[in-house]
Amino acid sequence: MTVKFQKLDVGCGAGKCDPSATGIDIFAGPGVDLVGDALVILQSVNTHSVGSIYSSHFLEHHNNPSAILKEMVRVVVPGGQIEIRVPHFSDPWFYSDPTHQHPFGLYTFCYYFAYGKFKRKVPSYALIEGASIQSIQLRFGSTRPFYFRHALKKAVQLFVNLNSFTLELYEELF
After folding, report:
1. Where do the DSSP E strands lie in 36-168?
2. What is the CA radius of gyration of the chain?
């Protein structure tokens, strides 16, 4: 494939993050431009030919997130951005979804990408060269009609994301 992409939305599902992005998903649907296994599709994309990549609630479903991450780094242009959102293992819905294959914690991406802001250090045997983590945040929320819970969770979110110490404290204690 010799096509260059401005923005890829990997695992876009029924709705892309940006209408101008090229949506990739295993199932055909509205907003899906390329149907198939995301890993196979990414492997067919030229090196350094994608401006940015967005992926939300996809990696936990794929059987090989490490290979997906390596391909994302390979295809994105130098200086390009990859934004990934995954559910934290403490999310009450994470383990109730039988399609979730991989849990993610605060340090999971630190095994793959350089990030020097945490006290706890992880082994570098899975490190992917050419990319680093710019920021890590935990998000908390509730669906309607649980407005009080939502407000409470947003207050906790503000505290947890104050700095790396409070992020690590949350992961260790809660």
Report:
1. 50-56, 76-85
2. 17
How do residues 154-163 score in pLDDT, each as one tens digit?
Answer: 999 999 999 9
Edge-first strand listing for the sheet containing 34-35? 34-35, 22-25, 5-10, 50-56, 76-85
Q: How many CB atoms lie within 10 A of CB 32?
A: 21
83 with 108, same domain? yes
Same domain, 90 and 119: yes
What is the three-class DSSP state of 3?
coil
pLDDT at 1: 43
Range of 173's domain? Answer: 137-174
Q: Does residue 117 sit in the same domain as residue 146?
A: no
Q: Quick one: 123 and 154 in the same domain?
A: no
pTM above 0.90, yes or no: yes
Provide the 8-state DSSP code for 23.
Answer: E
